[in-house]
Design brief:
The protein has 327 residues and is of the alpha/beta class. The protein contains twelve helices and seven strands. A five-stranded parallel β-sheet has the order 3-4-5-2-6. The N and C termini lie far apart (66 Å).
Length: 327
């Protein structure tokens, strides 16, 4: 009887080992899928695809892009690009901007979301975090972008599970001086107040930058860029559209253009002639009237409160100045 129990236990251990091995292989495959092909290292549209954000583009060019494009000179001065955290309301272009930075300088871009490192196994998330950084280092120079960063490194408390603390500790270890290994970090979050404060010290996150709602000039640029490749009327008043969309996010304006475009598409296919119906000022104004801003005034007040905590050196009035990180 004892021998039968031992045999049963042995088989259970073999099954468990096989399951863990299979899970590990799947996680490694999922992580490796984050690394793009070498062809993706070639510069694409870069900042040309970004409407507005002129101040942010200038700051990132000065501290991030110029350093990567002039590495020998930067090395002589002991300068590496700073790690950045972009925060602010949802839909204001943080993720799109990070992609444009990678395109502008022509480096590998790896985007990591919370689901990419989630695991049901003990220490599984830690292993995935380490694997992400290993893959980024192998593909260096790499811009490693963490989206919804607050979900990955929540503030630790005494009530937290030990595993969650270990995951934050893994990030702390991996982020230390990652730029010296050719891994440059940009993160994005809507809720920086939920992030563990140890993550936000220099050497891990060097600069914290508020990305707010687009101003009038940016909104006008967004409409021009969005309509530039569509069959649109030549007499569209972009300044008036910008005036009508005060308080709207980048994604709101994109949706407005798509709504007007969809209406003209359906009118075009209903016609017998093979010609396009042009998107007009009236269609765009109608789309604006039917689309409320996705960020409420109450939400904006809360973001301004958070901004007063994280962007204290500019008084919560302008985006945080990006500086150099000395080696």
């Amino acid at each position: 009887m004892a021998s039968l129990e031992k045999e049963w236990l042995r088989r259970q251990q073999l099954v468990q080992t096989a399951l863990i091995s299979h899970e590990t292989q799947n996680e490694q495959q999922a992580t490796s899928a984050q690394v793009p092909d070498a062809a993706d290292k070639q510069p694409k549209r870069g900042f040309k695809a970004v409407a507005g954000m002129e101040e942010l583009k200038a700051l990132v060019t000065e501290s991030f892009i110029n350093v990567l494009k002039n590495r020998e000179i930067a090395q002589a001065y002991g300068i590496v690009p700073p790690s950045l955290m972009l925060y602010g309301p949802s839909g204001c272009g943080k993720t799109f901007f990070a992609e444009a930075v990678a395109d502008e300088v022509g480096v590998t871009f790896m985007k990591v979301a919370p689901d990419d490192i989630a695991s049901t196994w003990v220490h599984g998330t830690q292993e995935k975090i380490a694997e992400v950084f290993r893959k980024a280092e192998q593909a260096a120079p790499t811009l490693l972008f963490f989206d919804e960063f607050d979900a990955m490194v929540p503030a630790r408390t005494s009530e937290d599970h030990h595993n969650q603390n270990n995951e934050v500790n893994e990030f702390l270890c991996m982020m230390n001086n990652a730029s010296e290994k050719g891994v440059f970090i940009i993160t994005a979050t809507n809720h920086p107040e939920n992030i563990d404060r140890a993550i936000l010290r220099t050497g891990r996150i060097d600069e914290i930058i508020y990305v707010g709602l687009p101003d009038k000039a940016s909104r006008e640029s967004l409409f021009r860029l969005s309509l530039s490749k569509l069959p649109a009327s030549e007499d569209i008043n972009y300044e008036e559209l910008a005036d009508m969309t005060s308080g709207y996010t980048c994604s709101d304006i994109s949706y407005i253009v798509k709504s007007a475009s969809r209406k003209m598409f359906n009118e075009s296919i209903a016609r017998k002639e093979k010609s396009y119906c042009l998107i007009t000022q009236l269609q765009l104004e109608d789309a604006i009237r039917h689309k409320s801003p996705s960020v409420s005034q109450r939400d904006l007040k809360e973001y301004e409160r958070v901004r007063s905590v994280f962007s204290t050196k500019d008084g919560g009035d302008k985006g945080s100045r990006i500086g150099f990180k000395q080696q």
